[in-house]
């Protein structure tokens, strides 16, 4: 079983919808939680970065971490066609040399 | 726009050839990473480095080598390319410290090199 499981998608929503992207994990040592956005034929771009549990908001994006449930989410409000991309969750433990990534969820926002 | 560059962007090469994928960053970051990404699949770590003359193996390191002679440069070499190496290769970097917390992430990725071995 993978350490990080991401909702597979693909996900298609109308413009303006609220989008919820989710990952679960099994390693209780994970302390840092990230969300990346990856457009087609591009490298991933770090969107949100959270340490431990709680919420973090940046514009239309909110990252939520529930360590007790080993569950993280990314919410996108007022989704736009430009949000159409693959979203990757990633996480790592303290002093870990590298992050563990989910497989990604592909989102399409239709005008 | 992140200052991390990968060349070439696309490469088609024959089986058995030796190839080097280039990665350079101008941000002075100590940590650099190489990942392999197949469509719809998670990123797999190939190698990483904490600084000059420091390299560590990842999950898929057995068929490739890296060097870190200069802070800004982290090339990946496949000694003998095989069709199973066909994939996208991503380079990333992050600072060792800095207060922004990015030291605990792969903060910046390059555009990737899409490799096809025929």
Which overall shape of chain A is indicated by the principal axes computed on the Cα atoms? globular
Helix-strand category of chain A: mainly beta
What's the helix count of chain A?
0
Strand tally of chain B is: 11
Subunit organisation of the chains: heterodimer
Q: Determine Rg of chain A (CA atoms, Å).
A: 13 Å
The poorly predicted ranges of chain B are: none
- Strand content of chain B is over 45%
> What do the pLDDT scores of chain A average to?
93
Percent of residues in helices of chain B comes to under 10%
Quote the beta fraction of chain A: over 45%
The amount of helix of chain A comes to under 10%
List how many beta strands of chain A DSSP finds.
11
Main sheet overview of chain A? 6 strands, mixed
Distance, first to last CA of chain B? 33 Å
Q: What count of helical segments of chain B does DSSP give?
A: 0
In N-to-C order, the SSE pattern of chain B is EEEEEEEEEEE
Report low-confidence residues of chain A grouped into runs of 5 or more.
none
Structural class of chain B: mainly beta
Question: What would you note in describing this structure?
Answer:
The complex is a heterodimer of chains A (111) and B (118). Chain A starts with a strand and ends with a strand. Chain A is mainly beta. Chain A has strands spanning 4-6, 11-14, 19-25, 30-38, 45-51, 54-58, 61-66, 71-76, 85-93, 100-101, 105-110. Chain B has 118 residues and is mostly beta strands. Chain B is 0% helix and 47% strand.
Question: Which key terms come to mind for this protein?
Answer:
heterodimer, A: 111 residues, mainly beta, five-stranded antiparallel sheet, 0% helix, 58% strand, B: 118 residues, seven-stranded mixed sheet, four-stranded antiparallel sheet, globular
SSE layout and pairings?
The complex is a heterodimer of chains A (111) and B (118).
Chain A: E1 4-6, E2 11-14, E3 19-25, E4 30-38, E5 45-51, E6 54-58, E7 61-66, E8 71-76, E9 85-93, E10 100-101, E11 105-110
Parallel strand pairs in A: 2-11
Antiparallel strand pairs in A: 1-3, 3-8, 4-5, 4-9, 6-7, 7-8, 9-10, 9-11
Chain B: E1 4-7, E2 10-13, E3 19-25, E4 31-37, E5 44-51, E6 54-57, E7 64-66, E8 76-78, E9 87-94, E10 108-109, E11 113-117
Parallel strand pairs in B: 2-11
Antiparallel strand pairs in B: 1-3, 3-8, 4-5, 4-9, 5-6, 7-8, 9-10, 9-11
